[in-house]
Design a protein that fits this description.
Two copies of one chain form a homodimer. With about 400 residues, the first copy, chain A, is of the alpha/beta class. Chain A is about 40% helix and about 20% strand. The structure holds a DNA duplex (30 and 30 nucleotides).
Chain lengths: ~400, ~400
Amino acid sequence: MSSPSAVESFPAHTSAASQIFTTVLSRGPLTRLEVARRAGLSAAAVTRAVRPLIEAGYLVEDVDEDARPALGRPANLVRVDGGRALFIGVKVTGDTIIGVLTDLCCRILVARHLPLPARAPEAVLGTAAELVRELLIEADGLGVRVAGLGMAVSGEVDRAEGVVRYSPFLEWRDVPLAELAAMTTGLPVTVDNDVRALTVAEQWFGAGVGLSGFAVVTVGAGIGCGLVVHGRVVAGAHGVAGEIGHVTVDPAGPRCHCGNRGCVEAIASDDAIVRQVRAATGVQVADAVAAAGLAHDGVGGARQVYTRAGDAIGRGIATVANLLGPERVIISGEGLAAYDLFADHIRAAFAAAAFGSAARCDIQTRPLPFDEWARGAAATAIQSFIRSDANQRGRGGEQQP
Amino acid sequence: MSSPSAVESFPAHTSAASQIFTTVLSRGPLTRLEVARRAGLSAAAVTRAVRPLIEAGYLVEDVDEDARPALGRPANLVRVDGGRALFIGVKVTGDTIIGVLTDLCCRILVARHLPLPARAPEAVLGTAAELVRELLIEADGLGVRVAGLGMAVSGEVDRAEGVVRYSPFLEWRDVPLAELAAMTTGLPVTVDNDVRALTVAEQWFGAGVGLSGFAVVTVGAGIGCGLVVHGRVVAGAHGVAGEIGHVTVDPAGPRCHCGNRGCVEAIASDDAIVRQVRAATGVQVADAVAAAGLAHDGVGGARQVYTRAGDAIGRGIATVANLLGPERVIISGEGLAAYDLFADHIRAAFAAAAFGSAARCDIQTRPLPFDEWARGAAATAIQSFIRSDANQRGRGGEQQP
DNA sequence: GCTCCTTATTTTCCGCTGTCAATGAAAGAA
DNA sequence: TTCTTTCATTGACAGCGGAAAATAAGGAGC
């Protein structure tokens, strides 16, 4: 994260305090005792950590008439005051920049889109800056400061350095995006891979809360996957991780843009589906929606394309489950609009290819409105904000077993 | 781990002390300052943590005439006294039990094998107990106590509970092996999956030292994979992880015992290779060694089988690399005896299927004498011993991001 | 209304850890 | 011998978090 101006920083200076705050943030209102249990700390530690956070306005106390115990002193609930700080999340796609203004609880307050004139870093930066400016004005209207900007880009991203190593889509190499955007906007900037950003949002605010191992699979223009192992998002040694889209499911399958044959992405991405539906039906469908329309109309060839796509996705998920044993897999993405067309095939292929107890993995689906991608970016900004101080565990020194 | 008798336990009561000990154990003799740098602590902390460990005899001080700095006070090296405690590692295979006696540095002092009369838990336990007895006598001869027993079994194992959930090979279900073995032998027992045990050995004493993400791929009777992510061995939510052997590389390939077609294991395991070589050449080779002999003799059909096997393994490794971005992959296993036959194909298939920077992953091979499997079991026992007290990080409470 | 019981939270005390800064130690160099 | 350099140790200290005791806030029984 790159932080240019000396903004007021988050007052959780101990690892326990930040752990407690994260627990409250993710698990909604909790009594102090609940927090203690969840975080594995004593009640005394929670009381102590909570006080300065309440004083600083990040936590507030609530009385909950419902959850009162049958007997004894009623508990006070502690929750995060979402309005205490705002964040901006920006997702860069091929032709648009999506931006959202969220509160500290990562609830979207405002969403804006701007078309992207070109893909060069300067163009993207200029458009992003304009979008940020608009959102900052909205934030001013609310009278709350914006505490961070998160940017999500597809490709290989080094979050720690804030550098986009390589984005095939944007044709960028080694662009120090965090630094550039920090200079332009004056905000602390976090840059991360788009799917990982989405995964962070699920981990903190979605279906991944409380899980130490899960996967997010996105189906749409591409097939992506974010992985959480041992409670942390996997980033990969060289910025590559979660490339489920390039798991081979059929070495005799269609050629993929990556050079191989039969990658999941070459069979189940929007583009691949459109291409296959055209080939199977002869109808020159314009896009994935039209292709799904044909399949919904019961056109045989089109349905079969979705069968095959579901099969590929299910195999890809089974591969992840066999290798990592996640507790849950969350399927999401724009492609979910056609979910009814391949849901059964995903499940069937997963069940067939999952090995032993890996099949017990819980598979969920979640719709993914396009703004969610930008919300993921905001989630990374929130994460950076909360960890802004010396809260990182084990900084310095080698990774220990 | 199940510990029946109140044996003297390891005197590292703080997380820093156990971290320091682990550093010295893995990185050989180090000066205190080196240790401090590696562990991310101050020199003072190292001095303080090291003293009781020296007093207890686990660490010893050496003077190193070589590594003396050009100027200034010469450094004193600290290293682990391997002879301070012994461990027994036991690996259960289908027809044999292999046992090793190791020192605290996991060096094999004695190795013994016993044939297995049957696969029922009682039979295995009886034979294992006899093997342990023999090794305990050896240990007595050295005058050093045995501080722990590690057992490695293939299949789904719950290490924390010491229970073998399901071992298809042994046809076991929910066998509380740690408890049973502890009662029989009177030693603290750690039970883990065999490939994970091997991975622990690599992580602490082998090619995985200092890496926060790597994979161990074993090639032989089966194709296995141990994964380390974020510095910890991946165990999977339900005891399943690293099943690279059941990654599909060719949906039209030969049927696998798991029910699917074209798993890596159905193409590249010893059995699969023997079957394919027989089919291709018509020669009724007896085993993998004979099959490799044919291929070495240049018999076309046989070579091709190895080409295909290498391709399958390479694709499997690429899948791991694409999903997790490990820093290194260590290929090992009995099948390595024929490594020259498929090395090039593994590398070629990996290079072709690895996506983007995932291809920068370092691929190494290590021979794996059969005793190494048992050494892996000993490594888990050493790990449990060092962590025997309150050293587990984050015990209690939920996994935090 | 008063007392007792139960549960939640806070306070007080305390030990422990690890850092900082200063000091000691052990060379070689001047 | 004295200085310089590097490694190691010590003492003072601050902060964290746990345990247990104390306090708070109800409801129930009388």
